[in-house]
Design brief:
The chain has helices at 16-28, 48-58, 74-80, 94-109, 129-137, 148-159, and strands at residues 4-9, 31-37, 65-70, 85-90, 114-119. The longest helix has 16 residues, at 94-109. Helix 1 (16-28) links the parallel strand 1 and strand 2 (31-37). It is 42% helix and 19% strand. The structure holds 4'-phosphopantetheine (PNS).
Length: 160
């Protein structure tokens, strides 16, 4: 069995910032399971299936990345995959408190699973799915911020 990591998130939609973390993770771990989960404090624009499909398209050239969704606790998903690591990106200090809460909760739920953080590339430190949706909603260009499949999907959501 290799080193397996789970990279969880809402990914509503996936951005180049997320992909930077996922792809760098795929160089470190034998397998990375990207898991689209529900965040109960967010109301998503894309369905879970749409979100998975957009990530699949953007990572199709990397065979050690698998994309799935899960309804339930992240630690239960990680256990199911026999993953010992949860991989998350950290942008700025503002992410710290939020990540500390989730990571500490996961540690209480399952002490065997460790969370690893990677600093997001500086180029994407301001980037979030929310800011991308805000810009796309008012027909601004998000070309530099998301993969081309996501750009097209956002156009369809807001124009179509
Ligand atoms: O991209 P996000 O919204 O910051 O990701 C948060 C996410 C989906 C990883 C988190 O809300 C989560 O793990 N949800 C699944 C339910 C769970 O396990 N909750 C307890 C730990 S926060």
């Amino acid at each position: 069995m290799g080193n397996i990591a789970v990279c969880p998130g809402s990914f509503d939609p996936v951005t180049l910032g997320h992909l930077d973390i996922i792809k760098r993770g795929a160089k470190i771990f034998d397998e990375v399971y990207v898991c689209v989960l529900n965040n109960s404090s967010k109301k998503p624009l894309f369905t879970v299936e749409e979100r998975c499909e957009l990530i699949r398209q953007a990572t199709k050239d990397l065979p050690n990345i698998k994309v799935e969704s899960f309804h339930g606790l992240l630690v239960d998903y990680a256990k199911q995959k026999e993953a010992k690591v949860i991989l998350r990106g950290l942008r700025a200090v503002t992410d710290f408190e939020y990540e500390m809460q989730g990571t500490s909760m996961n540690k209480v739920l399952d002490d065997e699973i460790e969370t690893f953080f990677m600093m997001t590339n500086n180029q994407y430190s301001f980037l979030s799915s929310s800011i991308v949706k805000e810009v796309a909603k008012y027909h601004g260009s998000v070309k530099e911020l998301v993969p081309k499949e996501v750009e097209a999907a956002l156009k369809e959501k807001f124009n179509g």
